[in-house]
Amino acid sequence: MAAEGRWSPHSFLEAGAAAAHPPDPAAAPAPHPKTTAALSKGCGYRTAFATAAGLVAALTRAHQENRLEEKLKQLVQPKLLILDEIGYLPLDRLGANLFFQLVSRRYERGSILLTSNQSLTGWGQVFGDQIIATALLDRLLHSTIINIKGESYRLKEKRKAGLLTRSEPFTAQAEEAAVEP
């Protein structure tokens, strides 16, 4: 965790704090409004937070070190597991299978709150397998879904700063141009 009372949500799970209360989300700026909303739901509950990429990396490492069972037990304990950025990066077959194992373990034992910029119809590509995506959604969709539509906070800020126009799509080239001095 970062010093001076500030925290990094990306390091929270990795620090072994999965069974602890998360730090106050107001103590440091969250990476995105969806993330801020997700973190606010964890206040007062035994909560763990990770990005999807960070979680899958931790699960993969535990699998390689023959500690997967221990890691899964650790991740089932919190009342709420917040996973950020589902779909930001596609998962390989092992990552998708490990993610499915976690969701299956937590099914009806603890809540999972996910943030994603992908529609549910695109999860087959995210997980590299439509069957795994369907099985995951079957375990996740019996609860509340909040669909936040609209332009992302980061894009709005880039447009506000004049780095992008309304009609200009956001591409890797536009991003590179926006960060060049």
Label this structure with key terms.
globular; 45% helix; 2 domains; Rossmann fold; mainly alpha; disordered N terminus; 181 residues
Shape: globular
Beta strands, count: 3
The CATH homologous superfamily of the largest domain is called P-loop containing nucleotide triphosphate hydrolases
Q: Please give the CATH class of the largest domain.
A: Alpha Beta
Average of the residue pLDDT scores: 75
Total individual domains: 2
Q: Could you say what the CATH topology of the largest domain is called?
A: Rossmann fold
- Report on the biggest sheet: 3 strands, parallel
Instruction: Describe the oligomeric state of these chains in a short phrase.
Output: single chain
Classify the helix fraction into a percent range. Answer: 40-55%
Helix-strand sequence: HHEHHEHEHHHH
- Class derived from helix and strand content: mainly alpha
Spans where pLDDT lies below 50 across 5 or more residues: 1-31, 170-181
Q: State the CATH architecture of the largest domain.
A: 3-Layer(aba) Sandwich
Q: In which order are the strands of the major sheet placed?
A: 1-2-3
Radius of gyration: 17 Å
Distance between the first and last residues' Cα: 31 Å
